[in-house]
Amino acid sequence: MRYQISGKGMEIGTALQTHVQDEIADMVDKYALRATDAHVVFSPEAHAIACEAVVHLSTGLLARCHATGGDAYAAFDSAVEKMDKQLRRHKRKLRDHHHKRAEPVEVTGGATYILAPSEGDDGAEEAEPLQPVIIAETQTVIPSVSVGEAVMQMELASAAILVFRNERNGEINVVYRREDGNIGWIDPSAGAAG
């Protein structure tokens, strides 16, 4: 497994790097998962240290968590505790559904954009069509999974939304966390009216 351990605005010592690598390796081994990469970033946040940890699993799933603590060790230990809980739930769901994926998840590439907010002109003419200003562009992956796996991946990544290719019909679908706490699912092929 490849590790990328860094600090934003702070130095990361070799003892902390060794601690991070050992703890992540132990956690991944505990759940018999195959991880490919681990990215851990430490940064000062007010009067504490923040830790953002992401582990990429060979199945295409991501486990992501964020925690803060009085020092880097406490922040990391809190983050690992959260990730351990996520991975435990992930393994329980796999066991409960008796579904083991034999092949890795297929993924396709895609671009993500960050757009600048539009500014209202209070009655100004709209002669030109709306042209959003792109302020950042990155690459992302779109996994080809079942709806259940998409929900599980969204929960593992602590994300509010996940775009995926539905294995059942090959169409692009979306799962998202609703304000009422439930999960929403958008499947354009199911609503196609002729």
From TrEMBL:
One of its GO terms (molecular function) is ribosomal small subunit binding. The keyword Glycosyltransferase does not apply. It is found in: Cytoplasm. Required for dimerization of active 70S ribosomes into 100S ribosomes in stationary phase; 100S ribosomes are translationally inactive and sometimes present during exponential growth. The keyword rRNA processing does not apply. GO terms for biological process: negative regulation of translational elongation. NCBIfam families: yfiA. GO terms for cellular component: cytosolic small ribosomal subunit. This is Ribosome hibernation promoting factor. PANTHER family: 30S RIBOSOMAL PROTEIN. Residues 131-184 form the Sigma 54 modulation/S30EA ribosomal protein C-terminal domain. Belongs to the HPF/YfiA ribosome-associated protein family. Long HPF subfamily. Keywords: Cytoplasm, Translation regulation. Its main location: cytoplasm. HAMAP family: HPF. Pfam families: Ribosom_S30AE_C (PF16321), Ribosomal_S30AE (PF02482). Interacts with 100S ribosomes. Associates exclusively with 100S ribosomes, which are dimers of 70S ribosomes. InterPro entries: HPF/YfiA_ribosome-assoc, HPF_long/plastid, RHF-like, RHF/RaiA, Ribosom_S30AE_C, Ribosom_S30AE_C_sf.
